[in-house]
Amino acid sequence: MAVHKRAYRPYEGPLTAERGRFLVLPRYGLLELFESRLLTAFFVLCFVPVLIGASAIYIANSPAARALLEMSSAPDFVRKPDFFFAILTLQGGLAFLLTAWVAPVLVSPDLVNGALPLYLSRPFTRVEYVLGKATVLLTLLSAITWVPMLLLFALEAGLAEGWGTANVRIAAAVFAGSWVWILVLTLLGLAISAWVRWRVVASGALAGVFFMGAAFGEMWREVLNGPWGRLANLYYLVGLVWRSLFGLFTSRSMAQEMFNERGRDLPTWAAWAGLAAAALLSVWLLERRLRAREVVS
Amino acid sequence: MGPVIELDRLVVRLGERTILDGLSGALSGRAIGLLGPNGAGKSTLINTLLGFHPAASGSVRVFGADVREKKALRRLIGYMPESDAFISHMTGVRFVRYMAELAGLPAQAALERAHEAFFYVGLGEARYRKLGTYSLGMKQLAKLAQAIAHGPRLLLLDEPTNGLDPPARQRMIRLIREIRDAGQMHILISSHLLRDVEETCEEVVILKEGRIAAQCDLESERRSNRKFVELETAGSATSFTSAVQGLGAECAFYPNGHGLARVKVVLPDEVEMRELFRLAAVHDVQIRRMNYRRDSLEDIFLAAMKENGGAGGRP
């Protein structure tokens, strides 16, 4: 390296493939995130519910372990969809906390000091920018949701003969349900971070969207005695979607639900629509905000 | 060599406002200055070259490629924005490496080029410091480093000396001249500072209210003005000026009293400057000061601003 010459020379070497260039962003993003010990510790803690679940599965399937713990019978709750639903609910909550922490760290520094024009003055589009930043969240959230949960499923399937093939729906529900939540969280997290810009405020705003939405939904339900205000409660909406995917919830007909003002729950289709609307709104917000130059008419 | 930038009746509108209004012309200098008062459309033109603002009508081509082919074009361009543009928690070298990788350099080459670029702009010792701790001058140099690290063919510098103190400004000007003289890339410098442009550029485009008010080749202006000399003399100016006129030069002198005089000379091309010193020695005249005429760009700029209703730009 001829740094001592201090002379400019053009670059004549090879270039990387354009298609995968957005992956530069997650590489740098993940590296910087895990420089924080606090975040690393929290990320490790996110695996605790899964480890507890794995222990429960092992105990339920191991007579030796049960004998050691002086348990008379094998607990069968680990074989039911409710068990996986409960762990997914816990992991979903942790995924939200992780998003509130990570999303502002990814986007805000680029916007606070005007770095976006530097990204976009290169052969790099806004879509690739969002894709690159989203990949960080998709990776982290996948790592604490569907990946360990499918390993749990595989563990139970491996230990209990025939259980896996009879309960493929659980695996599918874990996979699809996790991805629905991951996509909503990722898009919402990036959109709010892009608009708020300041890291701490963006984390607060993201928490506000969830907690205020939940409070608003419950208030509506109590005051107006109807479920439609719960459309603002994203965690509730994804819970409904998960229940339907796991087969723990039987939706009534759309017509019945629409006119059933006193119902406690929203119909499943409304939950899907609410989550889709949140995702689309986030995409729109990102499209409006992530520009190299703002034009004030 | 073909033109670097070709403008063909380019119109750019932002909202309801027309910012660039029918620009046409071809720019082909190694270093091109974009001058104009605030609001003249300089930054908008740069943003249009980068594809940030679409053309409402007309077209722009850079090295023959239409700016609508954004990705192909941006491979050729290095951009140093006017305002702050950095990631404060990153170290300088990581930031430049990151930007070079986004421009398509493999990780190892990007790291190597980032170090080189930092040494080149004179920030070698500060390259492991976080950008948020840099002074304004250092941030400007870091922006220049990220603009050149990937080896662009065209470097767009938007107000590169903005906010710099005199030594930092001198360093920036020297760097720009070095880059220009290395001959590896073309430079487009947008500035409202005549001196910056005069010291670095060969060709100048002056914008006023979104239109090209003047375009000139500074190098030929300099050549034509090089023979315009202003002297301050002590001694017999009358005989000296007669002798200078004998060389075929146009000459006039203005006595200042106490034997001092101001002499203005326009030398013919074939006459060298040293002839003035020789004649001064022969006529026992001291040349106490000698100035080349240096205000050519200012003249051109003021003339351009006066046209169409006086100086000033868009508010």
Largest sheet entry of chain A = none
Count of spatially separate domains of chain B = 2
For the largest sheet of chain B, list the strands in their spatial order: 6-7-8-3-9-10
What is the CATH topology classification name of the largest domain in chain B? Answer: Rossmann fold
Largest interface: A-B, 41 and 50 residues
* Biggest sheet statistics of chain B: 6 strands, mixed
Report the strand count of chain A: 0
Helix content of chain A: over 70%
Question: What are its keywords?
Answer:
heterodimer, A: 297 residues, mainly alpha, 14 helices, 70% helix, globular, B: 315 residues, alpha/beta, Rossmann fold, Alpha-Beta Plaits, 2 domains, 6-stranded mixed β-sheet, 4-stranded antiparallel β-sheet, 11 helices, disordered C terminus
Write the layout of secondary structure elements.
The complex is a heterodimer of chains A (297) and B (315).
Chain A: H1 24-33, H2 37-45, H3 48-61, H4 63-68, H5 81-112, H6 116-120, H7 126-144, H8 146-159, H9 163-166, H10 168-196, H11 199-224, H12 234-246, H13 254-258, H14 268-289
Helix pairs in contact in A: 1-7, 3-8, 5-7, 5-10, 5-11, 5-12, 7-8, 7-10, 8-10, 10-11, 10-12, 10-14, 12-14
Chain B: E1 5-14, E2 17-27, E3 31-35, H1 42-49, E4 57-62, E5 65-66, H2 70-74, E6 77-80, H3 92-102, H4 107-120, H5 136-148, E7 154-158, H6 166-182, E8 186-191, H7 194-200, E9 203-208, E10 211-217, H8 218-225, E11 228-234, H9 237-245, E12 250-257, E13 260-266, H10 274-282, E14 286-292, H11 296-306
Parallel strand pairs in B: 3-8, 3-9, 6-7, 7-8
Antiparallel strand pairs in B: 1-2, 1-4, 4-5, 9-10, 11-13, 11-14, 12-13
Describe the structure.
The complex is a heterodimer of chains A (297) and B (315). Chain A is mainly α. Chain A has one domain. Helix content of chain A is 70%, strand content 0%. Chain B is of the alpha/beta class and 315 residues long. Chain B has two domains: 5-222, 3-Layer(aba) Sandwich (Rossmann fold), CATH 3.40.50.300; 226-292, Ribosomal protein S10 (Alpha-Beta Plaits), CATH 3.30.70. In chain B, 36% of the residues lie in helices and 29% in strands. Chain B contains eleven helices and 14 strands. Chain B has helices at 42-49, 70-74, 92-102, 107-120, 136-148, 166-182, 194-200, 218-225, 237-245, 274-282, 296-306, and strands at 5-14, 17-27, 31-35, 57-62, 65-66, 77-80, 154-158, 186-191, 203-208, 211-217, 228-234, 250-257, 260-266, 286-292. In chain B, strands 6-7-8-3-9-10 form a six-stranded mixed sheet, sandwiched between helices. In chain B, strand 4 and strand 5 form a beta hairpin. Classes of the chains: A mainly alpha (297), B alpha/beta (315). Chains A and B meet through helix 1, helix 5 and helix 6 of A and helix 2, helix 3, helix 4 and helix 6 of B.
